[in-house]
Model the fold of this input.
Amino acid sequence: MNPAIPLFRTSIVAATLLTAGVSAEDSVRLVAIQATPKDAATLRADLADPVKGARSMAIDTLLKKGTVLLADFQEADPWRQEPVKMTKIVGEIKFGGQNMKDLGVVAGIEGGKFGPVTADALDAEIALPGKGQTYRSYGVMGNTTVAKSGRWQERAWWGDGKDTFMLWQYATVNAPADPAKRSETGSWDCVRVEMRWFQAAEADLAKLAQAKPESRDKAMEWLSGKAKLWKECGFRARTGERSMWHSLEVELDMKDGEVIERQDGLSLDGSFSGQGGDLKMEWDVEAFVKEKGPTSFKLTAPMAPGVWVFLPVKDVANSNVVACRLSRD
Done:
């Protein structure tokens, strides 16, 4: 997943977006936010409230609590079976007078209506300036979910214990497509993927391995209080479809007349499979350290919805355990 180019694809789910009529009044609001972890937790709690989170403008009041609004996009009729691109460019990185990287927020949504279901895939990148010729890149691709009309949904998030970056979506869907036109898209089984990468004491890893499913929430609280968080990631995924996520610091340099990249951070590329309470996740992981290149490995585990799973991590400088969870809204 190369963050040096916009994360907007020409066609995200063209093979599955087959049918449907949409109302001209349908709309989506997509908001990119930077917050402290504490403010992010408060924002999540407030927007999950059935009263507070039921209005499109609810987030505007909550943003006064110290969060930073990075971009605010509003699009009419976004589920029209064609790519819809949204951009807010605030700067650039140049070499020799030539623009090598746009800085800001770039997002692309593509969706449609499938009988009673309105769904879309979201690609996005938040690219923020760093020191010198560096930038921080937070990205997702193939982020697929079923739109919940009249409520806020967190589409993706990135965290490092100091800052949290979030993408929130508010969908307004006025009428479903004809139920007789369900289309041949199969199941719309979508989940929230959560991962928290920690550096923990070896003795604590042994204790985590003994945690039973019914006590994993308490084990997660215990781990969060003792271990150092490296990366927190979250995004949406549809069964069997590829999803990607990354959190990287990228340094651009010139060598032999060509621009090269040095990366530091984490990227994921994979999917989940299964049905009901019998799920499985499979991710290709790359952990980057500048000057050393990536450490690549697979992260695979059976999963039960809503239950944390703790997996050991080897050969990664900043993490030795990752907590994973797949949840349905």
About this structure: The CA atoms of residues 156 and 235 lie 4 Å apart. Residues 2-24 have pLDDT under 50 and may be disordered.
